[in-house]
Design brief:
Elements lengths: L6 H6 L7 E4 L3 E5 L7 E7 L6 H7 L2 H18 L6 E3 L15 E5 L8
């Protein structure tokens, strides 16, 4: 069940400030407050989805397409076309700390080993 009081929901409502990289009607991309790489950006859909399974099963196709377009636009805006990785932790056991679907975009010559 989606918790409307999670930190990303508060960011989307403007209750918590963020350093926005990219924003449109469907996604918000912003710098992670606890980066694990030189560049560490989170991309979140504006819809209420807990994880990648919830998103892919319940978001309309147009919303899913818009999300991935937002990921691409974020990567291009950051100039990372050929030098990035993405991570989507799913579930607390895998390290998902905010139960709002999000994708990490990270880039660095040296990634943090324990990530």
């Amino acid at each position: 069940m989606y918790n409307k009081d999670n930190v990303f929901a508060k960011i989307l409502r403007g209750e918590i400030p963020n350093k926005t990289v990219y924003s449109d009607d469907n996604v918000l991309a912003f710098y992670d407050v606890a980066p694990r790489a030189k560049v560490h950006v989170l991309v979140i859909p504006r819809g209420e989805y807990t994880d990648i399974f919830d998103f892919t099963q319940n978001a309309p196709a147009a919303e899913q397409t818009a999300f991935w377009n937002g990921v691409r636009n974020t990567v291009e805006k950051l100039g990372l076309r050929d030098n990035f990785r993405t991570v989507a932790n799913t579930g607390r056991g895998a390290g998902q700390s905010v139960m709002h679907f999000h994708l990490h975009i990270m880039s660095d010559e040296r990634f943090v080993e324990d990530f």
